[in-house]
Each structure stands twice: as C-alpha cells, then as structure tokens.
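Appendix C reproduces, verbatim, an entry submitted by the partner laboratory led by Prof. M.T., so that reviewers can inspect both the input and the predicted structure.
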Amino acid sequence: MKKLFIPLLMVFACVNIYAQDTRNSWQANILYGSKIKTAGFGVTFNLTGKKHEFSPSINVFLPKDDVKVREINFDYHRLYNIGEKVRVFPIIGFGLAVWDGFGGEGNSALGDNDTKFGANLGIGGRYTLNERFDVGFQLKYSAMSSSGSQTVPMVTISYKL
C-alpha cells in the first residue's frame, strides 16, 4: 500500500486542478460485503466536475471467521441531475482488495494473504441536504480475481469542501 501513496497523491493533485470550479467532498461510507457477509466502513474523496466525478476510496470490512478484508477503489461517476437536489450516476472503476486469513477455495491454512484485482460496476445516487452535506447510496458489484467477487451496497454521507 505504501507504493500506492505517491501515485494516488499525483492523481488527487491533477484531478483537483481540473475540478477547481466545483465542490469536492469527503464521504463516509457504511457498507456490506456479500461474499464476506459482514459490514464495513470507508472513506472516499470525491473529485467533482460539472458532469464527472473521480472517487478513490478506502474501505475496511469488519473481521469475520478470522478473515479481514481491506480494499482500495478507483471509481468514475458520470453525474446526472434530477432536479436541483438529486444526482444519480453509473459507477465504473477498478479495485484492489487484500484478504487476510483467506485460504481460498481449497480451504488451505488460515493466515494466507491474498491480493485480488478487479473491476467495479454499479449505480449510485445522492440527495443534497444543504450547501455542505449530501446523503446517498451506492450498489456496486466488484468483479475480483481469485473468487473475491462480491456485491457491495453502501450508504454515504458527504461533506462538501
């Protein structure tokens, strides 16, 4: 993960320059993983343009059966306004997930560490509460390698900068 810090910082800086005339936001996520069957939490930084949004995120699922899952996602949203307060968007992106204690399909010894890569597809929406806060939802399918695919519904709250 340390090797990803500098590239992530560069992406944030480049997209932030592009999106200076809009309101970027920090977003808190509460989510559920259908494969691991446990809840999780995360944080997203939405780099928002007029019709486009780049949303890198970090999510952590609560441990279950000695399995811990952490993921980093890089998602793109095409924003569609419905009235003044509602935005909906398709989600497309890619992700990296680290499963600790996952023995794989063959049920090998616990303690294994498996890194999975894949694509994210889904839909989301946001409702503007006031000039600083939005609440929203996302339903995303993460198609991951090595049998790590799962559906991830989440509720969100965003603070606009």
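The chain has one domain: 37-160. Additional entries are available on request from the coordinating office.
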